[in-house]
Amino acid sequence: QVPLIESGGGLVQTGGSLRLSCAASGQSFSSYAMAWFRQAPGKEREFVANINYSGSRTTYADSVKGRFTISRDNAKDTVFLQMNDLKPEDTAVYYCNFWGVDGAPWGQGTQVTVSS
């Protein structure tokens, strides 16, 4: 597997929205559950949300439940993270990866900064 490519991050004010994308072309994308993670400065990488291979089941961290939505487009080998009502504590580098696949390489991530 090759690293995934995240995009869509940026600087937004509290209460704003962003939509992150993760491209995984050529990697049998539709066979895998996918997930988003994030890492804030000085903290461990943490789970944000995951989605099963078909998109019919999703799970969220309590900290983002009701504000973030994970989705996928298997025809385009892409997974999304719609982030609404952003808070300063959401500031982090966001990564996507295969869920439950040991050793899958991490991409560069995309920086999300929420100003107060």
Structural overview:
With 116 residues, this protein is mostly beta strands. The strands form two sheets. A six-stranded mixed sheet has the order 2-10-9-4-5-6, with no helix packed on it. A four-stranded antiparallel sheet has the order 1-3-8-7, with no helix packed on it. The protein starts with a strand and ends with a strand. The model has no long low-confidence stretch (mean pLDDT 94).
Concise structural overview:
The protein is an all-beta fold. 0% of the residues lie in helices and 46% in strands.
Q: Work out the strand percent.
A: over 45%
Average pLDDT, rounded to a whole number, is 94
Uncertain ranges: none
End-to-end Cα distance, whole Å, is 38 Å
What's the helix count?
Answer: 0
Q: Using the CA coordinates, give the radius of gyration.
A: 13 Å
> Based on DSSP secondary structure assignment, what is the total number of beta strands?
10
Report helical residue fraction: under 10%
Oligomeric state as shown: single chain
Following the backbone from N to C, one meets helices and strands in this order, namely EEEEEEEEEE
Please tell me what the overall shape is.
Answer: globular
* Main sheet summary: 6 strands, mixed
Keywords:
mainly beta, four-stranded antiparallel β-sheet, 116 residues, six-stranded mixed β-sheet
Q: What secondary-structure arrangement, pairings included, does this model have?
A:
Layout: E1 5-7, E2 10-13, E3 18-23, E4 34-39, E5 46-51, E6 58-60, E7 68-73, E8 78-83, E9 92-98, E10 110-115
